[in-house]
Amino acid sequence: MAMSTGGNSGGPMSEINVTPLVDVMLVLLIIFMITAPLMSHRITVELPHANPKTPDSGYVEPMDLAVKSDGTMYLNDAEVTEADLKAQFAVAAAKSPQPELQIRADKGIEWKYVGKVLTDAKGAGMVHVGFMTTGKE
């Protein structure tokens, strides 16, 4: 308890007692000094290395599907209809190993066109589907 050491008034002092504040700060400092070295240990993970597939190791050419904003589709740069595309998906799904379907869609395309392609591919049994994008513009 803070007491006045002199003066006319015998009331309490209007100064802040900083002793509890210093005690709490020292305890926090000790806690942080103990826990900071524990956070610096990192878990090392052995990541796999990428090696490109060569034609003799079972490489299958991916299917490149371009979907324009008006809904027209081009499979490997040849225009296809929805029925032709379903037939191509069925043939590709039966292959072993199965080729990857790489979809390139226009920026302003409605989602229903891409969703229809994904539904058709899944229905035919395609499991490897990827989306292609461009770099930063």
List the helices and strands and how they pair.
Blueprint: H1 19-39, E1 63-67, E2 73-75, E3 78-80, H2 82-94, E4 101-105, H3 111-124, E5 129-131
Parallel strand pairs: 1-4, 4-5
Antiparallel strand pairs: 1-2, 2-3
Helix pairs in contact: 2-3
Uncertain runs are none
Q: Tell me the strand order in the biggest sheet.
A: 3-2-1-4-5
**What can be said about the biggest beta sheet?**
5 strands, mixed
DSSP E strands, number: 5
Rg over CA atoms, rounded to whole Å, is 34 Å
Q: Given the C-alpha coordinates, what overall shape results? A: elongated
The secondary-structure class comes to: alpha/beta
CATH class of the domain at 58-131: Alpha Beta
Q: Mean pLDDT, as a whole number?
A: 83
Q: How many helical elements?
A: 3
Helical coverage, percent range? 25-40%
Tell me which CATH architecture of the domain at 58-131 applies here.
2-Layer Sandwich
CATH topology of the domain at 58-131: Nucleotidyltransferase, domain 5
Reading the helices and strands in chain order gives HEEEHEHE
Strand content: 5-15%
Termini Cα gap: 67 Å
Characterise the protein shown here.
- Strand 1 and strand 2 form a beta hairpin.
- Helices cover 35% and strands 14% of the residues.
- The protein has a five-stranded mixed β-sheet.
- It contains three helices and five strands, in the order αβββαβαβ.
- The chain has a domain at 58-131: Nucleotidyltransferase, domain 5.
- The chain is elongated, with a radius of gyration of 34 Å.
- The protein is an alpha/beta fold and 137 residues long.
